[in-house]
Amino acid sequence: MAADWGDIYKELGATPVINATGSVTMLGGSTPIPEVKAAIDRADGAYIPLMELQEKAGAAIARMVDVPAAYITSGAGSALMLATAAAMAGDDDDRIQQLPNTGGMKNEILIQTRQRYWYDRCLELAGAKLVMFGSEERTTAEDLAEAIGPNTAAVHYYAVEQDYDPNALSLEQTIAIAHAHGLPVTVDAAGQIYPLENFGKYVRMGADFQCIAAKYLGATQSVGLALGSEDMIRKIGLQAFASYEGRRVRGVGRPQKVDRQEMIGAVAAVRHWMTMNHEDRLADSERRSRNIMNAVAGIRGLRAELIDNIIGHHAYGLNLWVDPAAAGMTIYELRDRLKEGDPPIWTRVRDDEDFITIHMFGLNPGEDGIVGERIAALLRK
């Protein structure tokens, strides 16, 4: 670790940490890759009308990922909100300016009970109401058809390729039923960026919209992508901050700015992701995961298991279980002691799990060794 590691934060009295949790918003989300930093620097030299840049940058991204259209947003959450606004207000400027008051317009977004998740809150920010269909155990085609009513504006789907749910209604069925009723389908696929055929897959399947979190590609944390049909992306653009200023129409997307440098950086990130050597990327992630596993091998009361998933944005990693009787501490105490060390190492134990998951995404070169050594030192005391 460099002697000046984290100094710019320490100068402010803030404490930098080693991020073994992954690409989490709370810790900053991403470290822009060199190609993105170079593109951002080049963008500093001139100003440009942002409505034009959005059009040109979106078209470039759409070509690279083989979808009809794309738009750069202030993170994937912003893309979800803008898509919901577009589903409700469309291209009617009076309705665009009326939001988040949805009086007189369809404002219900249908979502499977089984697919409620932390970020569906973003769908409500433009004034929409979430309406669940199906049960906790299963969703059928009939459940969706019966849930569609006079106030339904769209059907939302949460796509997680690495955790397929056989008891949820499939996206194919969702699209078929929704489109038969003249309703758009929106898909949260924020992390579905690998294998490359998954990038934009849901739009190519017929969904009207999907989001991507560009931080997973090595862009800045605060950038997302809206991918979709030409009509949906056009309507999303009408709700966004650039349209608020460029067309002088007061849409709800005004607070969610994206600067010109970030837009150029997003294009660079997509270009790099679609052309890079992913075999090398995956091999490096596996190597660093095994470095930690080797460091903690043979420790009494500790079980480590390699995660061999390569789908999505968190490739490889490892799960750690602790036997308190043998190790002398619980998994929660291990998490807390890692966080209390110098430098602090942040990990996470989810509420419904009894193990720590360590991801490579947020670890700088050499930090995998520090994480492994720290865990080993704590448990061998």
Question: In words, what does this structure look like?
Answer:
- This protein has helices at 7-10, 34-43, 50-65, 75-89, 93-98, 141-147, 171-180, 201-204, 230-239, 241-246, 260-275, 278-296, 324-327, 331-340, 367-380; strands at 18-19, 69-73, 108-112, 129-133, 152-158, 185-188, 209-213, 224-228, 302-306, 318-322, 345-346, 356-358.
- The chain is of the alpha/beta class and 381 residues long.
- It folds into 2 domains: 7-29 and 277-380, Aspartate Aminotransferase, domain 1 (Alpha-Beta Complex); 34-275, Type I PLP-dependent aspartate aminotransferase-like (Major domain) (Aspartate Aminotransferase, domain 2), CATH 3.40.640.
- The protein has a 7-stranded mixed beta sheet with strand order 2-8-7-6-5-3-4, sandwiched between helices.
- The longest helix has 19 residues, at 278-296.
- The protein is globular.
- The model has no long low-confidence stretch (mean pLDDT 96).
Helix and strand arrangement:
Blueprint: H1 7-10, E1 18-19, H2 34-43, H3 50-65, E2 69-73, H4 75-89, H5 93-98, E3 108-112, E4 129-133, H6 141-147, E5 152-158, H7 171-180, E6 185-188, H8 201-204, E7 209-213, E8 224-228, H9 230-239, H10 241-246, H11 260-275, H12 278-296, E9 302-306, E10 318-322, H13 324-327, H14 331-340, E11 345-346, E12 356-358, H15 367-380
Parallel strand pairs: 1-11, 3-4, 3-5, 5-6, 6-7
Antiparallel strand pairs: 2-8, 7-8, 9-10, 10-12
Largest sheet: 7 strands, mixed
Computed CA radius of gyration, to the nearest angstrom = 22 Å
The CATH class of the largest domain, by name, is: Alpha Beta
Q: Counting H and I runs of at least 4 residues, what is the number of helices?
A: 15
Helix content: 25-40%
Order of strands in the sheet with most strands:
2-8-7-6-5-3-4
Estimate the mean pLDDT confidence.
Answer: 96
Specify the CATH homologous superfamily of the largest domain.
Type I PLP-dependent aspartate aminotransferase-like (Major domain)
- As for the CATH topology of the largest domain, it is Aspartate Aminotransferase, domain 2
The computed structural class is alpha/beta
Number of domains: 2
Low-confidence stretches: none
Percent of sequence in beta strands: 5-15%
CATH architecture annotation of the largest domain: 3-Layer(aba) Sandwich
